[in-house]
Write a structure and sequence with these properties.
Length: about 450
């Protein structure tokens, strides 16, 4: 396995991540062209934060499917687990959207201003099936990746982006709905279309899987085994996504909350586009874990991706490319440009850190040590939350607080994962039988 083959396995996944991350700027561009754009950008950011938290247990289903779907029995029981999880999380979404829980979470816990909370609620109600659609899609994406069909994953994401853009453009031209609702409708059109497309793309593979008997040496997959493997990954996703509403809560308690809450999603979305190339390394590492020849080329390739994405962040943050992006793509109020530029300049190294972290996560998941991935994200959240608290206590500039907290916490997670991986590798080498001595 050389770097070229790794590249062709990784590229469709990276394209898929990038297309998915372009969704945010696309929707934001539609919202900025409607009335009360700052208010609706803040409301849409809130909707996404809550939706992503509820969605978090299904995000890592792609990794779980890559690792666990081996034959007909494992496919069917994991599918049952996915359906059950989707139903439970859809009920949770409904309870938050249509009961007093919404006020408790948004106003009480997060401290979001009432005007933003009111604008966000109908948009959040539209997102009822968001989690179920994504859970179903991630499950079948994992099956495609396990069988080397990563190109089909990128096709599905392209379909998603197409429907998102068409819906956002049509509703923006119509101009009769608030921006936050336009954003929610656009996202739902995209994720449902992608779930359907991915399911159809995976059907030929599924038909083959359903004819494969379990190997005599393999134990049948059980629900308890799935829970033991997947729950640390689900908790990792939850902790990852908790960062965003926690950041929003901090920004709401600092100066100029409407401006900072409106611009932080723009900063985060732009950075996620660049980070997507590194995020694809997690699934690439899991898929290649069984091939020891691939490990050194994969490490070298990770370093290349880390350097390239951080260089791209540098070019965006320090050149007129950012002005062009904010003016022509996002159509953001020029008074808010300085917030975005300052945040991106602080986050220059974040794409590179993301690439290294995703590579280590993939290696640890493939080794079956998913709890280490969870603990690493726990380190991230503790560091991030502590720095946000300090920022609020000293009333520092909001975007600076959010950006510094994010990049320092990400670096802390990477260092933890690297240490754990080194420890596991040393333990495995120690257990290997010593080579017999030779006589010269």
């Amino acid at each position: 396995m050389n770097r070229r083959r790794i590249f062709w396995l990784w590229l469709p996944l990276a394209v898929s991540f990038t297309l998915m991350m372009l969704e945010g700027p696309t929707v934001q561009a539609a919202i900025t062209r409607l009335d009360q754009s700052a208010l609706n950008l803040a409301a849409f950011g809130l909707v996404m934060s809550i939706s992503l938290i509820i969605e978090s247990p299904v995000i890592m289903l792609i990794s779980t499917a890559i690792a666990l779907v081996r034959d007909a029995q494992s496919y069917r029981i994991l599918r049952t687990f996915v359906i059950t999880l989707n139903l439970v999380l859809t009920v949770v979404t409904a309870l938050v959207a249509w009961t007093p829980l919404y006020g408790l979470v948004v106003g009480g816990v997060l401290g979001i201003p009432a005007t933003i909370a009111a604008a966000a609620r109908p948009a959040f109600q539209i997102m009822l099936l968001w989690t179920a659609a994504i859970g179903w899609r991630r499950f079948y994406q994992g099956i495609l990746v396990r069988h080397g069909l990563t190109t089909r994953v990128s096709y599905g994401t392209a379909i998603r982006l197409f429907f998102t853009i068409v819906t956002a453009a049509a509703l923006a031209v119509w101009g009769r709905l608030p921006g936050a609702i336009v954003g929610a409708c656009s996202l739902m059109a995209g994720v449902i279309s992608e779930a359907i497309a991915t399911h159809l793309f995976a059907l030929p593979v599924v038909r083959r899987i359903e004819t494969e008997p379990r190997a005599a040496t393999e134990q049948p997959l059980t629900i308890s085994a799935i829970i033991a493997f997947h729950m640390p990954l689900a908790a990792t996703s939850l902790l990852t996504l908790v960062v965003q509403p926690v950041t929003a809560a901090a920004l709401a308690r600092l100066a100029q909350p409407t401006a900072t809450l409106a611009t932080w999603p723009v900063i985060f979305s732009a950075m996620m586009v660049l980070r997507g190339w590194g995020m694809a390394l997690q699934e690439t590492a899991i898929a290649q874990a069984a091939d020891q020849r691939a490990q050194r080329p994969l490490r070298d390739f990770t370093l290349i991706v880390a350097a390239a994405t951080s260089l791209a962040a540098l070019l965006l943050a320090f050149t007129p490319a950012l002005d062009l992006y904010l003016r022509t793509v996002i159509s953001l109020d020029p008074q808010l440009w300085s917030y975005v530029r300052g945040g991106l300049q602080v986050l220059l190294l974040l794409p590179g850190i993301t690439a290294l972290t995703s590579w280590l996560r993939g290696l640890l998941v493939a080794a079956g040590t998913t709890s280490n991935v969870y603990r690493g994200m726990g380190v991230n959240l503790v560091v991030n939350g502590s720095l946000l608290l300090l920022g609020v206590a000293f009333q520092l500039p909001g975007i600076l607080v959010a950006a510094v907290s994010l990049i320092v916490a990400s670096a802390a997670e990477y260092l933890y994962l690297q240490r754990r991986y080194n420890t596991i590798a040393e333990e495995r080498r120690a257990r290997m039988p010593a080579k017999p001595a030779t006589i010269a």
